[in-house]
Design a protein that fits this description.
Distance between the termini: 57 Å
Order of helices and strands: HHHH
Helix content: 55-70%
Structural class: mainly alpha
Number of strands: 0
Number of helices: 4
Shape: flat
Radius of gyration: 17 Å
């Protein structure tokens, strides 16, 4: 069973090539990050911990699908990130 990708949907919906669909989606992502950041900065009625959760979901989603790879369903593509985070983390402690 093949699942239709966002790129394929974009191609069909807009009648564009795969390369143009990649560009289109990349621009959409950049524009939406601007909206997210702007809304978070001006929001004063939503608790910060809720905004942080929303931002973290957006961040992990972007990581999982960056470069039009599906790291969500192909764990091998995500392996290096998990190792860097959990096995070989960079210490952020200040040395005295």
């Amino acid at each position: 069973m093949q699942v239709v990708s966002a790129v394929e949907c974009c191609m069909k919906q807009n009648g564009i090539s795969q390369e143009d669909a990649f560009k289109f989606i990349k621009i959409e992502i950049e524009d939406l990050w601007k909206v997210i950041n702007e809304e978070c900065l001006k929001s004063d009625h939503i608790p910060k911990f809720v905004l942080d959760c929303i931002l973290n979901v957006a961040r992990i989603t972007e990581l999982a699908y960056e470069n039009f790879e599906d790291k969500y369903t192909d764990g091998q593509l995500l392996k290096d990130y998990v190792v860097a985070l959990l096995v070989d983390p960079i210490s952020m402690q200040e040395h005295k």
